[in-house]
Amino acid sequence: MSAVEVRGLSRSFDGRDILRDVSFTVGHGEIFGYLGPNGAGKTTTIRILLGLLAPGAGEVRVLGRDLAADDDARRRVGVLFENNGLADRMSAADNLAYYAGLYGIDDPAERIDELLVLVDLADRRDDPVGTFSTGMKRKLGIARAILHRPEVVFLDEPSSGLDPGAQRMVRDLIVELSRREEMTVFLNSHHLDEVQRICSTVAILAGGRIRAFDTVANLTRASGRPAVTVALADPGERARACETVGGLPFVAGCDVDGDALHCTLAEPGATPELIAALVRAGFRIEEIRRSSRSLEEIYLEHVSRAEGGA
Amino acid sequence: MSTLSVIARREIRLAVRNRSALIAAFIFAVWFPVMSTLSIAVGAGGDTAAVAGGIAAITLPVGVFMGYIFCADTFLREKRDGTIETLLCAPVSLQRLWEGKAIGVAVPACLMMLLSAAVAIAAASTFSGVSVAAEPLLLIHLAAVVPVWILAAAGLIGAAQLALGMRENQILGFILIFGFIFLVGGLQAVVPGGAGISPAMEGVLAAVGLSLLALARFIAGKVTKERIVRTIP
């Protein structure tokens, strides 16, 4: 059984299709990245999974249960929306104590202290949350979301509105929590770099449909033909080198890419032949590396294809 | 501790820390009875039942208005800020959440109403020389009838605030509060005994208050999570 299962999910609002036949699964213990442009339906998917909205068609399950119909199953799930779910006029500790009461945690003082230390807010435990920075609120929001040791935690844009330092802090916190608490993390994010760094699996949602669903490693590796980037000792020779290798049978194409050559190979394993051909032609190679496309490139390709109606 | 108690206690604590709501409630709780008691003292002419009836009449709308003031913080703010969405994901039924919040509104509203009643009783004693502090029907009115009305008002307004969008909420809030006030005036006109406090009047008010409470519970039961989430601004 998967931690999260979505099968043939569709939903429309006011006659506009937001989700169309969306299907994917998230395994236990994974950090899953759910990507898509604004208005793609990412938050709608989370809301349906959490039982806040009804699906138009299809079926969703979290830990094998329908959260809309099962109050008790929600005890096993945590959630962080953009607003953090905190009351500004209450202290950090009081906010956590409130949710501890809602989730029926007996004697939560120790757990609250542990989490405040983990998110580095122990010295602010009695301060009103309204006095906190956006980053501090987000950290406390994460602590609130995992207070009851959920098996699955949904994080909706956890880095949104944070400065780069705070983004990194939140990213490290998510990885740390996933390891320490062995949680499945469902991460809704715009930050492709963040997703590529911490997620094991991703789904790309665009135009209401899932355009890609795979592990990050597979997506970045299996996209298109193998390619290598070659830096020459004399960058002035890039154009001539490109002409030289461009005509070889095992090279599908060659472009000048900044200070280097970007060679797409017609077949895997042709890198030694490429190096030999360059050396034979008298070029001195400074560096050569296998190039894989970034998640950002793959994401933009899928989104532009969806916007083009493909 | 039950979840109902957890929710109610949190709302009470937040209300106590809401300075602007407390100041507005305090001003209304003091100013309104003092101004009203002046005319009651003159009209009653030393009649204890009439003075008690007058005070009973003003404490009801005061209590309902207090409920309206505290609802804005408990239900509407939660929706405007979007924090209600997080609460809806907790292992608590929507009905229980609504009940806890309504109680959390009713407690500070009742305390403010009692403050208002104390001011009115003191003012009546000063202006007319009549003391109604130990009038049994008035005590029943303050201890039981008005709290039921406050709870009903908090429940109705809260359910509406959860179900409606922000613009509709602004309009409906005023409609509800003035509806309550006119209802009170209407009841006093049709119940025998005139403006004076009477068992019949208290009986009718208690019955209407309980009916409104049942209506509020019924309406709250019809509000869905989807409705709430889709009307978050």
Q: Report strand order across the widest sheet of chain A.
A: 5-6-7-3-8-9
How would you classify the helix and strand content of chain B by structural class? Answer: mainly alpha
Count of the domains of chain B? 1
Strand content of chain A: 25-35%
Molecular shape of chain B = elongated
Oligomer: heterodimer
**Average residue pLDDT of chain A:** 89
Note the run of SSEs of chain A as H and E. Answer: EEEHEEHHHEHEHEEHEHEEHEH
Kindly report how far apart the N and C termini of chain A lie: 33 Å
What order do the SSEs of chain B take from the amino end to the carboxyl end, as H and E?
A: HHHHHHHHH
Structural class of chain A: alpha/beta
Strand content of chain B: under 5%
Number of helices of chain B: 9
Q: What's the helix count of chain A?
A: 10
- Please report the distance between the alpha carbons of the first and last residues of chain B: 33 Å
* Unreliable residue stretches of chain A: none
Radius of gyration of chain B, taken over Cα atoms and rounded to an integer in Å: 18 Å
> C-alpha Rg of chain A, in Å?
24 Å
Please describe the topology of this protein:
The complex is a heterodimer of chains A (310) and B (233).
Chain A: E1 4-13, E2 16-26, E3 31-35, H1 42-49, E4 57-62, E5 77-80, H2 92-102, H3 109-118, H4 134-146, E6 152-156, H5 164-181, E7 184-188, H6 192-198, E8 201-206, E9 209-215, H7 216-221, E10 227-232, H8 238-246, E11 251-257, E12 260-265, H9 271-280, E13 285-291, H10 295-307
Parallel strand pairs in A: 3-7, 3-8, 5-6, 6-7
Antiparallel strand pairs in A: 1-2, 1-4, 8-9, 10-12, 10-13, 11-12
Helix pairs in contact in A: 2-3, 4-5
Chain B: H1 3-16, H2 19-44, H3 48-81, H4 83-88, H5 94-128, H6 136-163, H7 166-190, H8 199-222, H9 225-230
Question: Can you describe what's shown?
Answer:
- The complex is a heterodimer of chains A (310) and B (233).
- Chain A has 310 residues and is of the alpha/beta class.
- Chain A has helices at 42-49, 92-102, 109-118, 134-146, 164-181, 192-198, 216-221, 238-246, 271-280, 295-307; strands at 4-13, 16-26, 31-35, 57-62, 77-80, 152-156, 184-188, 201-206, 209-215, 227-232, 251-257, 260-265, 285-291.
- In chain A, helix 2 (92-102) crosses helix 3.
- Chain B has 233 residues and is mainly alpha-helical.
- Chain B has one domain (3-230).
- In chain B, helix 2 (19-44) packs antiparallel against helix 3 and helix 3 (48-81) packs antiparallel against helix 7.
- The longest helix of chain B has 35 residues, at 94-128.
- The mean pLDDT of chain B is 88.
